[in-house]
Amino acid sequence: MRQLSGKRTILSVATLLALSAGAAQAQQGDPLYRYQWHLMNYGQAVIGDTRPVSGVDIGIDDLHDYNIRGKGVVVGVLDQGAEIAHPDLAANVVPNGSWNFNNNSHDPTPSASQGGNAHGTAVTGIIGAVGWNGIGVRGVAPSARLKSFNFLDAGGTTAQIRYAWWDGPESKDVAVSNNSWGDTTPLFLTNVSENELAAWENPMSATRGGLGTVYVKAAGNGFNSVSTYCPASSGRVGCSQSVFVEESNYFNVITVAAVNATGKRSSYSTPGASLWVSGLGGEYGWERATLATQATAAQLATQPAVRFDPAIMTTDLSGCARGYNTNRVAPVQFWSDFDLNRLESNQSAIDNTCNYAATMNGTSAASPTVTGVVALLLQANPKLSFRDVKYILATTARKVDPTQAAVTDANGTVLSAGWTTNAAGRPYSNWYGYGLVDATAAVTRATGFKSLGALVDSGWQRVDLETPQAIGNASAPARASVNLAAGAGRIEAVQIGLASDYPVGNTLPLKSTPLVVTLVSPSGTRAIVVPAGSVPVGATMTFDLAAVNAFLDESGTGNWTVEVADTSLAAGTDAKGKLSSFKIRVLGH
User: Fold this and answer.
1) Residues in CB range of 32: below 8 A, 6 or more apart
2) CA pair distance 56, 38, nearest whole angstrom
3) How many other C-beta atoms can be found within 10 angstroms of the C-beta atom of residue 580?
4) Between 363-380 and 386-396, two packed helices, what is the crossing angle to 10 degrees?
5) pTM above 0.85, yes or no
6) Does the structure show a pLDDT above 80 at 6?
7) What is the pLDDT of residue 10?
8) What is the pLDDT of residues 492-550, one digit of tens each?
9) Residue 364: phi, psi to the nearest 5?
10) DSSP per residue over 323-363, as a string?
11) Which of 241, 239, 216 minimizes the C-alpha distance to 226?
């Protein structure tokens, strides 16, 4: 194991004594481990044409050596079905613990007709591939107990989510739920009643004997595009925003962004005010030398540089006939028909089984890196509530890309903030949340952690403006305020909603909005909820639910103000809409 640098948190002697009972000296018994830069990154050559920047990993450090491996922690993976008999997963799979929604069996392995459905197997491997077994890769939590729920292979219904999250018998002992999925078109402004929200959050909080299952969710891959819907003008702030996806705004959910091997936002990673932390998703993992023997120079020249930066190596559907890593397909119709890197096909000199892939990416890959870290925390301290886990991850995360700057227009108006520090001293970014998870720092904090205590929930507080306010430009925004007389002493989460008659648009071609929505806390911290340049879809700028996570540890008591400004409005011209109502809910302790 490498020497820890100053930016790492070294495990305390007490932590090691508490957690290392029975630990054996770790052997490098997983031949593809050296390519898993997300676990241990010393700047080594991996799959891809560029090397990762040393130290950009999730901070496993010595945890695995001291037997902190997620032992006994049950992880549910709501996704496409995982191949539960995969040689690098089977030993960690809970017997009869998974669920196939198509045939009501305990084997969710994709059928022969679902040969391309490898996503669930890849996600599951990132979390809990078996370690030190002489083959393949290693998971973040290589001793976790795994369950697979194949709802993406079975229609992806709301009832199936509830089954896997709390309602089904197989979900009853799940401590961590990984959700690497999202809306097909994550652009629509949220439309959910307060009762509907409670019907989700209340049973989620009641799981795990009242401690609450830890729900980890991918933010999405919509920074640059959502299908073909996003105009070029959205490219500076992100087309989609995490607040446009209902589940990403739930109090119980940890919404995860993706960081690449340079320690910066993965090119695709959806930004937003509801992000909590970041995991590692990488880029695409292609290699020019491999492709040069198959594609033309002209074809290769069309591909952006990020295609050739490292992705995440993980498990794939077994064999070379299906999954991400297959033998070359002819005639070629798609880039995936080529061998994209040295690992692919049964001719690979690295591994010729095709049981592994090195092209897994997306916030779909970042989320399971966080889920794996949560499993390590819950092994270290099984009494942690979901609120405790959220707090520990946020307060031990590393501030990556520290020079990320605000995006401004020609007039200097802030369209999207960079890193900002709130009144409690907590740095936050709409690209990274509270930063990149650090497993060693988090486990150290988890050991002996004192619970946050009783939840203080303000409930929804609302103001309907007697005279709706005109939405002016940045120097004259519409404002609405709610005063909380006895809010939480230390904030854990904030949710808001608002209504206006400002037209947004829900017909093609979609247009980016000139509106910027900002929430101002009683302490004066400003958090951008909807940035100008993003592409919300709806009749008007009206939404029922957006989590605004930048206020951790501030006081919730006092005056909360929402501002809505039209950055396109010239001075002296008439407003195009008015703000009519604002509501807010503040949770903490």
Assistant:
1) 136, 137, 313, 350, 351, 356
2) 7
3) 20
4) 110
5) yes
6) no
7) 40
8) 999 999 999 999 988 888 999 999 999 999 999 999 999 999 999 999 999 999 999 99
9) -60, -30
10) SSS-SPPSS--SGGGS--STT-STT-SS--S--EEEEE-SH
11) 239
CA distance 437 to 570: 43
Which tokens sit at 515?
């509106």
pLDDT band at 28 (very low <50, low <70, confident <90, very high): low
Q: Answer yes or no: are the C-beta atoms of 575 and 483 closer than 8 Å.
A: no
Give the single-character DSSP code of 340. -
Mean pLDDT of 173-198: 96
Amino acid at 447: T
Which pair of structure tokens corresponds to residue 557? 């008591």
Report d(CA 471, CA 106) in Å as an integer: 55
Q: Got the DSSP string for 487-502?
A: --SSEEEEEEEEEE--
Contact 51, 158 (CB under 8 A): no
CA distance 502 to 512: 13
- At 402, list the tokens: 């520290």
| DSSP strands (E only) in 471-556 | 478-484, 491-500, 503-505, 515-520, 526-530, 538-540, 543-547
Nearest residue to 57 via CA among 503, 487, 439: 439
- Of the candidates 529, 530, 543, 547, the one whose C-alpha atom is nearest the C-alpha of residue 586 is 547
Residue 279 near residue 240 (C-beta atoms within 8 A): no
Tokens of 238: 């992100």
Distance separating alpha carbons of residues 277 and 435, to the nearest angstrom? 5
- Tell me if residue 379 falls in helix, strand or coil: helix
What is the C-alpha separation between 21 and 11, in angstroms, rounded?
15
